[in-house]
Amino acid sequence: MADPSPPPPLEVLGEMRERLGELGVPEPVRSGRDPFRVLVSTVVSLRTRDAVTARVAPQVLDLAPDPGSMARVDPERLSKVLRPAGFYRRKAGQLIALAREVERRFEGRVPDDLEDLLSLPGVGRKTANYVLGMAFGVPSICVDVHVHRVSNRLGLVQTSTPERTEAALEELFPPRIWSSINHVMVRFGQRVCRPVGPLCGECSFGEWCPEASSAGGSGKEAN
Description:
Blueprint: H1 9-20, H2 35-45, H3 50-63, H4 67-72, H5 75-82, H6 88-106, H7 114-118, H8 125-136, H9 145-153, H10 162-172, H11 178-191, H12 210-214
């Protein structure tokens, strides 16, 4: 019978990294990155595959590398560049609107405060936390669909919304690793603990994971 209690959270995260190999090594989290580039890349990435983001985001930033130029860019030209990333007109409008707000309210500098970031057009907690962690080195947990699904599936948390997942994970993990949680759980959720057909038979958590127990460890479809 599967043990319903998982190992300590840090051990679980460590096993995810080991399973992923090099893919589980987070990109260094440090201050000094251009916050506007991080913010733009994050907006481009919404509902977009990593490979597409990696190609499109640099093109967007070549066109408008700072808030001032983004605020004045031609919407149609920006939409054309964004088209491969999907939702291109919406993303173009959002990027222009938030750039104008950064220019108007923050003297052309992306703010390093959560509430200020959330006040920008179209910026939610996921985007704001990612920018805080990756651009400013502020400990923050970016909870997307993968982080929410994986942490609940494994029984690390029992939450109904990403916001509650964020708060619960903050209680489980020390602040020093908050900003790396998204990197590890996203890749684990994409490659092992998939939304449909999770690879339970290839996962080292099968002895205690509630999902593996209910699926018989066979990787059957899961919601």
